[in-house]
From TrEMBL:
Region Disordered, residue ranges: 36-59
Keywords per UniProt: Acyltransferase, Amino-acid biosynthesis, Transferase
Entries under PROSITE patterns matching the protein: HEXAPEP_TRANSFERASES
Organismal lineage: Eukaryota, Viridiplantae, Chlorophyta, core chlorophytes, Chlorophyceae
UniProt protein name: serine O-acetyltransferase
Organism: Chlamydomonas eustigma
Top-level enzyme category: transferase
Positions of the Serine acetyltransferase N-terminal domain: 65-170
EC identifiers of the protein: 2.3.1.30
KW Aminoacyl-tRNA synthetase (keyword) present: no
Entry's Gene Ontology BP terms: cysteine biosynthetic process from serine
Amino acid sequence: MIQRSPLTQAASTPEFRELKQPLGLKEKRVKAALLSSMGSVDEDEENHPSQGYKRLSHHPTKEELWDKMRSEAWADAAVEPALAPFLYSTILSHTTLEKSLAFLLGNKLCSPSVLGAVQLMGLMQEAFRSDPDIIDGAVADVMAAKDRDPACEKYTQCVLYFKGYQAIQCHRVSHWLWNQGRKALALAFQSRASEVFQVDIHPGAHLGKGILIDHATGVVIGETTIIGDNVSMLHHVTLGGSGRARGEARHPVVGHGVLLGAGVSVLGPIVLGSGSKVGAGSVVVTDLPPHCVAVGVPAKIIKRDLKKEPVVTMDQCYDFIPDYVI
């Protein structure tokens, strides 16, 4: 008889594997899956990405973020007059972050043969009004880029130029459409985003807040994937499925605060424990406990440290060779 780990057993509960419903419609199942991935941390510290999203003291509110973005746009327009029309149309002509994002992404995704820019802008603003969590997630994702990516010097840099950020926000809208039962439109939306950004996220996948997809090219996230808060990943990450049963979880659960290096593949309905780190090029096919370091093909656990929060340091090299001997 095959022994299943506690994480896999938790991910197999009825709450997690409820049939005949899209995964995004069952919030309790998402919570149950992420709860199964969590470990303990030192409560004396303020920042615990592996325990879920929390707005930190240095993070601006949505309104403060928008004011900072407008100030940055004015400064950039003064230094680079050639960019002034672009900065005016995407930021300075708008009164809110929601309208700015709708304009920017609508014009990115528009296509003569699928959806026009005006249609897409209206659709996005409808989603933002209907579900405030979408724009809350967008704000949290900006903070993630500013905190974790040393190349991100300004908020506008992330919003205007980082295709990983833009792909995530498009997914948040397509996921909203999917959960509304508007699957045909959600899939059309996702298809255009995949063509434009080279990032393929199925609209059924659940993404938490504070997500960073750095560089982003080649990222693939399958339909029943659950990604917690504060997750960071690099280009060419695959969160892929195993099996062909419809209505069941076929893809991974990625816990809060997980770091996935470039080219990582995670296959099947397995659970990556919160605060874990997977080295570049690794292939993960079994559960990982919280706060571990795994590397290799197939990935093997080489270290555990309950105090480590890998997305804070974004260190993709340390701990991978614990006993190097020449």
